[in-house]
Design goal:
The complex is a heterodimer.
Chain A (H helix, E strand, L loop, with lengths): L1 H33 L6 H38 L1 H4 L14 H16 L2 H13 L6 H25 L3 H18 L2 H13 L5 H15 L5 H4 L3 H31 L1
Helix pairs in contact in A: 1-2, 2-9, 4-6, 4-9, 5-6, 5-8, 6-9, 6-11, 7-11, 8-11
Chain B lengths: L1 H30 L7 H40 L2 H17 L2 H16 L7 H32 L3 H15 L5 H13 L5 H15 L5 H4 L3 H19 L1
Classes of the chains: A mainly alpha, B mainly alpha.
Amino acid sequence: MIAWSIHFALSLLATCRDILPIAGIIIGFQLLVIRKPLAHPKKTLIGFLYVLLGIAFFLEGLEMALFPLGKLMATQLTSPEFLGFNPNQQPLSWQAYSWVYVFAASIGFATTLAEPSLLAVALKAEQISGGAIHAWGLRIAVSIGVAFGIALGAFRIVTGIELYYFIISGYVVVLIQTFFAPKMIIGLAYDSGGVTTSTVTVPLVTALGLGLAEAVPGRNPLLDGFGLIAFASLFPIIAVLGYAQLAHWLGTRTRSSKS
Amino acid sequence: MLEIRFIKQLFSSFLDLLPILAVVLIFQVLIIGQPIPDITRLIIGTLFVILGLTLFIQGLEQSLFPLGEAMAYAFAKKGSLFWLLTFAFCLGFGTTVAEPALIAIAKEAANIASKGNIIEQTEAARDSYALGLRITVALSVGFAIVIGVLRIIRGWPLYYLIIGGYCGVLILTPFAPAEIIGIAYDSGGVTTSTITVPLVTALGVGLATAIKGRNPMIDGFGLIAFASLTPMIFVMAYGILL
């Protein structure tokens, strides 16, 4: 219990250290430039403490429960014993890793759904759009994008195809979609690419990428282990733009069939 | 009243977490065929995550969102572009330079560069490379928020800038050293932390609401998109120049 309390205090301290620059900038500008007192200083301070405590508990819980298990599973799924062969004898075809792709997609979907940054953006989007954009719908669209992205990223590590072929074609798709998507959604779609990969997703996905690059013969973990996060930030953009186009298209079709 | 909301939020956090639990349990038990190593730790840890998520959302709506919006209004009312842009830069630079995920990735990148004989194989060379990379990314995020804020004020269409940025990424990629490409692409994703995102989003939306002729839905978002785009360009340029 005492050891645990020390551990928790340390992670709380680490969170404080991460927040310090932001708090310093806000307080500095508030005092020196804006020179106006905050509307609800007490409420804001308490809210800030909630955020601090919340992140500390969140990280502590992840460290305790999910990260060790998730990382263990990433290594187990890519181990030769599980795949049932000796990798030094003959190279496996990419189909042999099918459970890895399923795991990559499921863990990508599930972790994104619990990502606090995405939750924040989705709440704000629902509030501003007056409910036209549903927080849940947005989060599911983003999660599907991440799931697809990570599975494709795992496939890339297994086959060893160059990273930038995928990324460049992904960007070309985004560019084409941008021309056709409703203007309202573009900013939000681009933003959702950046918010998907933070506290929950990055450690698990990195473990998966490095484990996979170590297990597949001929891959260099230093070179091929990276790049999964890039996939996870690219495909949500495509998913959200696609979701908006679909909703827009269905909307116009219903309207035109009624008239 | 407050307690009911809290319990509701706890429940919805539990629902948010349920998919991860399901994936982990199903894979561990059914596919890998191993028992769960330490079930008490799993349960306690999960409870912590749920409590943490609930507190975070509570604090978000009570503190970070109103704070970001209040500052956006105050700057818009003050009308000083210089101070607004300075604030934007500080917010981007200050929150990124100390970001733990970025520190980890910069260290990893220095190891790769050292093994690939791009830099000398000494501790000092690795440290200075990692620090240089962190400063580069932090500068690029500061720059991104400045451009994003300027865009909201001037009303430039977002997609021109984003498309221009992507073209920059596409053009730089063939010239960048192969070792840095994966890191450059990843560094775009790791720069935006859990506290920065709500603040920056609230700032953008607040500005777009406060300035006449801007639509918060069309103009308010996009700051984070810049913050994940410019690091890719800056890091590749860093790799080319070194």
